[in-house]
Amino acid sequence: MADAADFANDHAEYFLQLSLQRHARLPDRPSAQYCEDCDEPIPLARQQLVAGCETCVDCQDLRERRR
Ligand SMILES: [Zn+2]
Description:
Helix content is about 60%, strand content about 0%. It is built from three helices and no strands.
């Protein structure tokens, strides 16, 4: 199942990026309270974890797949 492998890779990379961002101490950029793509509220935990996040987890995942 190539799809399952891709899914696992995407998530491994996603968590790697998260941990890099936490350690990099990015400049404080306000996170969006609502997803830019689907207008769903972004959970506060995600806003705090991902500095300057613009989308919910689902849309972020979609954006990374489209690249
Ligand atoms: Zn969204």
